[in-house]
Amino acid sequence: MDNFIDAINRVIRTRRSIFPASYTTEDIPKEVIEAIIANANYAPSHKLTQPWQFSVFRKEGLERLADEFGRLYKENAAPGSFLPSKLDAIRNKVLSSSCVIAIILKTHPEKLPEWEELASVACAVQNMWLTATALQVGAYWSTPGTISQLSEFLQLKPDEKCIGLFYMGFHQELPREAQRSPISEKTRWIEE
């Protein structure tokens, strides 16, 4: 049992954002991506709505996603503020990744408030992140300003919304524990 809790503690405490600039050019095998997504499916969800869905972009799909972000940047740039270097940076963030997963929330307003469904999807993403960490895959959850404009591109239904992008890639960064203030500063015990 000690080995089990030690392993869980190590994965949780070394999980961190690893950004596309740190990714190598090595492809993540499809089986590894499937294993990461499979663990998302074990997140808790009230009334078992399982409100998470994913669109996985890899290979040529990354080009399509990069093109869409480029189009959105050009379309939304204020007059006179368009920068070719920013366009390149937006596209390179996607193209530097082995895969990018669109995180989609499927709501069930007749059953639950949206915040409960959102909490479930966040738990699913944490499961993915912990699995990626254990498999030495770098990951980063991003919520770009244009996220609400991806519905048509992602072919979302009216009860679905994209709540983020999960960038992944192999990397060579050394593991390190996250910096956190002591939990004692965030905990109040009521025992009487």
TrEMBL record:
Keywords for the protein's UniProt record, in alphabetical order: Flavoprotein, FMN, NAD, NADP, Oxidoreductase
Membrane spanning stretches: none
Keyword Flavoprotein: yes
InterPro entries named in the record: NAD(P)H_nitroreductase, Nitroreductase, Nitroreductase-like, YdjA-like
One Pfam match: Nitroreductase
Protein name, entry field: Nitroreductase
Family according to the record: Belongs to the nitroreductase family.
Keyword Flavoprotein: yes
GO-annotated molecular function: oxidoreductase activity
Segments forming domain Nitroreductase: 12-169
Needed cofactors: FMN
